[in-house]
Design goal:
This protein is an alpha/beta fold and 286 residues long. The chain has helices at residues 8-28, 44-59, 75-86, 106-112, 124-131, 140-151, 171-180, 195-199, 248-251, 266-285, and strands spanning 4-5, 34-40, 63-69, 93-96, 160-164, 184-188, 204-207, 225-228, 232-233, 242-243, 257-258. It binds guanine (GUN).
Length: 286
């Protein structure tokens, strides 16, 4: 039996179509949603992500401001820009693309963003609100995963959920969202002893480790829901294609539902960034 695909591209399009009316209503009242994206340095993946974020904003009728600094920029320069954007009434969301160059203390940069403009949901105040089950902004990738589970009618109450990955961007907020939804949650990482013993218990398995085809068919419970957050570039000798953390070709014969890469979680991340920015503008316009 082959698993049913969870189509993130289609859901992203559906949600973005729904955003149009909200953006138009805000604009009519003089509150066009605005997102500022700060990029420091020339990390190729970050440059692509930032370009896609800015383009998606503009395609959605929103204002975007891209601010690019060279890799050797002093942290004070970026902190001064964040202070300026915090005070700018035309900007509702501020995002600093991670990772930052070595001279930066990421935490102090994220803490400098006004919590009500922190559309990534990375400020300690917003992480705390999520942990308490009363989120203000949900980090975009795990938010997108929750939307996909909801769209596919997955009730998480009482389910065994296993998250592989413990990053602040995906793994930890993903675990909090699953806990808040009533799942029994285990958080593993690539070094977890006997990882397969954990993953084989999962009704819902979320892979966010950043290792190509790390999750093999023998690690998956028959009938599980498998969410692949990985976006890995295979080496040229293996075709150079994008590939997830899950061995899709084999796992699709075991799982009940599975996300493809590309076209799964990826398109949902930027969509939820737009959702958070619109939400920020709506709160501000109240
Ligand atoms: N780097 C990788 N993913 C993300 C994200 O969701 N937000 C930011 N700011 N940086 C990232």
């Amino acid at each position: 039996m082959s698993a049913q695909l969870m189509d993130g591209k289609a859901l992203a399009e559906e949600l973005r179509a729904g955003f149009k009316a909200r953006v138009a209503a805000l604009e009519a009242r003089g509150h066009r949603p605005g997102l500022a994206v700060i990029l420091v340095g020339e990390d190729p993946a970050s440059m692509v992500y930032v370009r896609n974020k800015v383009n998606a904003c503009e395609a959605g009728g929103m204002l975007s401001r891209k601010i690019v600094y060279p890799a050797d920029t002093a942290p004070e320069t970026v902190l001064a820009k964040i202070a300026e954007l915090n005070a700018d009434p035309g900007i509702h969301g501020i995002l600093v693309q991670l990772p930052l160059p070595r001279q930066f203390d990421e935490e102090s940069v994220l803490e400098a963003i006004a919590p009500e403009k922190d559309v990534d949901g990375f400020h300690a105040e917003n992480v705390g609100a999520l942990a308490q089950g009363n989120p203000r902004f949900i980090p975009c990738t795990p938010y997108g995963v929750m939307k996909m589970l909801e769209k596919n009618g997955i009730d998480l109450m009482g389910k065994e959920a296993v998250v592989i990955g413990r990053s602040n961007i995906v793994g930890k907020p993903m675990a909090l969202l699953l806990i808040n939804a009533g799942a029994t949650v285990t958080v593993c990482n690539s070094k977890t002893k006997d990882l397969a013993a954990h993953t084989r218990r999962a009704d819902v398995l979320v892979a966010a480790v950043g290792k190509p085809r790390f999750i093999t068919a023998d690690m998956v419970k028959p009938g599980a829901v498998v969410i692949d957050v990985g976006i890995n570039r295979l080496p040229p000798e293996d075709g150079g294609k994008l590939c997830g953390d899950v061995d899709f070709a084999a796992v699709k014969d075991i799982a009940a539902l599975i996300t493809p890469v590309p076209g799964g979680v990826g398109p949902m991340t930027i969509t939820m960034l737009l959702a958070n920015t619109i939400e920020a503008a709506e709160r501000e316009a109240k």
